[in-house]
Batch of 2 targets.
Target 1
Amino acid sequence: MTQSITHYLPLLDWYNAMGADTLFSDAPRDYYQTADQSLSTLNTPKAIHNHSPYDSSLTVMPAIVTLATPTKPSPIDLSRDSAKQGRAPVKTGLARNDLGDAHPARACTTLEELRQAMKTATGCDLVKAATTTVFSGGNPKADIMLIGEAPGAEEDRTGEPFVGQSGQLLDAILATIGIDRTMVYIANIIPWRPPGNRPPTTSEIAYCLPFIERHIALVRPKIILLLGGVATKTLLRRDDGILKLRGELLPYTPLHNDDAGDTLILAMPTFHPSYIMRSPSQKSCVWKDMLILKELRARNFSI
Ligand code: URA
């Protein structure tokens, strides 16, 4: 007996809630079964444990300290006097990725090499379900680099970061201070869409961290704008969360890339556009952060 379409709507809702929100073809296909051999050997939890670069032999994170712990600057006071010069020990679950020189990010000396290394990476299960590797968007010569969390459905389809709803809001936020995508460079902590837009796991982040750190080292922006809690926690490795850190100017200190150079790269956490969509009352905070960015640009990023 043929059922009417309404009969199937609850099922579609359920698929959607489980994260299966994209139709790729008419017939179902198990991507885990059809993945190439090198990927399929990673399928069992045991194999994942044995092959994984990050779980079985994590070293204790070296005692990384930030150079300074600035207090929240106001849009009109960006002087170094507004910064506390204390040293703050940092604790998070992230350890240095022990793949070391074997990590595919390590050998990349150009953005194109990095793009290829990420496109062919197999060390993270997210690549199996993702359609594309979302590498970057915007202008690689820009002084400002925006770093989000991970691609969503639209980004996975198009290969461009921040092209869905949160991307439209991001464009509107940037426009408030007169900048657009030709004046910023955009990447994500994770280049592959987590199924159903779930948050990335610590081990996925640990695998991707050398990629984004190498990405920053190759672009060498003057400031990185960290969009949301995942980008903030991953790249700053601080106890404090986004609610406490947003709007602060902090020195960026990579965990890998010992060749990162001496020039100070500033980091400023701000709320992720999708958080603003859920909590519009927080828009004013992002507005304040944008004013800080505007002021910094006007000063050519010297503080
Ligand atoms: N959210 C992100 O963090 N990154 C994107 O590219 C899109 C949405």
Target 2
Amino acid sequence: MAKKTLIIGAGGVAGVAVHKCCQNSEIFPDIMIARSTKEKCDKLREEALARTGSSTKISTAQLDAMDVEATTKLIKEYGADLVLNLALPYQDLAIMDACLAAGVDYVDTANYEPEDTAKFEYKWQWAYRDRYRDVGITALLGSGFDPGVTSVFSAYALKHYFDEIHYIDILDCNGGDHGYPFATNFNPEINIREVSAQGSYWEDGQWVHTQPMEIKREYDFAQVGKKDMYLLHHEEIESLALNIPGIKRIRFFMTFGQSYLTHLKCLENVGMTSIEPIEFEGHQIIPLQFLKAVLPDPSSLGPRTVGKTNIGCIFQGVKDGKPRNLYIYNVCDHQECYKEVGSQAVAYTTGVPAMIGAMMLLTGAWKGPGVFNIEEFDPDPFMDALNKWGLPWVIDENPVLVD
Ligand code: NDP
């Protein structure tokens, strides 16, 4: 029977995922888009159908995904086989609860983060393992680019190129320019919470903590050039540390331009990035949410962003008793993405793997039941799908290492 997919969220990432589902109508003959405002879902439906000429049937609905009962009801009424959660990390647990109640599979791209604490970790979602296994459904966590593709690269490297991987450096380079002095490429609130938090990396079985932006390196990225990159805490480190046996160190670096950093420092210094509520003219407001409202909407950056992203992983380890280094990466062009789906490359590199993750479960290429991080599944069908659906990857067997 034709499978039905409920997509929650209709922002930048969901916009790409919906276009990609439309291009892949054999696997996605019927989707529903639901978010707080139905008009935005309707607009996305019209754009995706016009751009792709797809036969995918798209319906839309208004939904507050924090309301577990309403989400469960919508899943059942629509008859969804799978829920693709492309809303915000705050909604993850509520949507996982609704999937449990309705008995359908779950996919997301970012791990749960409580709204009042800028701390993301997997413990809350891993706590659902037994319940998902008991009900016989699957949750696939982190099917974006990072986490997501970088985690699949790690599983692929281990499966085909290494007996043991000892060091992983995940490098996320956005060489794009949108022409604004300051804007974020995905949800500003989530982005600023992530980059203003303390950094950390995994070494010798424990976390090493750093000050925000304390560790800086320069790297020469293929098709982008030399960029400064900074060590950040990132969620895939937590699961890769468990799922890559013999690992000694995992670090995550992201590139930032000087204008972004100077603006961020200034906003921090005046208190605009705080998530502590303040009283303003009789209202409680959260400064970071107010800041989000005045910043450019990431989904409006598509037409004006030029340049490329280069995201991948450098692996160091051993094969047949000999040391081996390997770099697997993808390069994505902002303007090419815009021409294809009307979005810039940061949304594209997340929306494509979100569609592929959903496809892995819908086709039975990946099977549960339980709660899984993406690197726990066989990487091969996902790697093939990346090449087919717009994120081709490159293997460099002689990479320059990060010191
Ligand atoms: P946007 O802010 O553009 O979109 C978020 C969407 O969620 C909006 O459509 C919003 O609808 C909807 N939403 C928010 N709250 C609710 C709610 N209570 N009920 C229903 N819908 C809701 O975000 P992005 O598209 O940039 O990011 C989406 C997700 O992707 C985030 O979780 C982000 O962390 C993740 N991400 C993952 C990456 C990866 O590589 N793994 C990279 C980039 C992003 P409305 O405005 O109507 O409330």
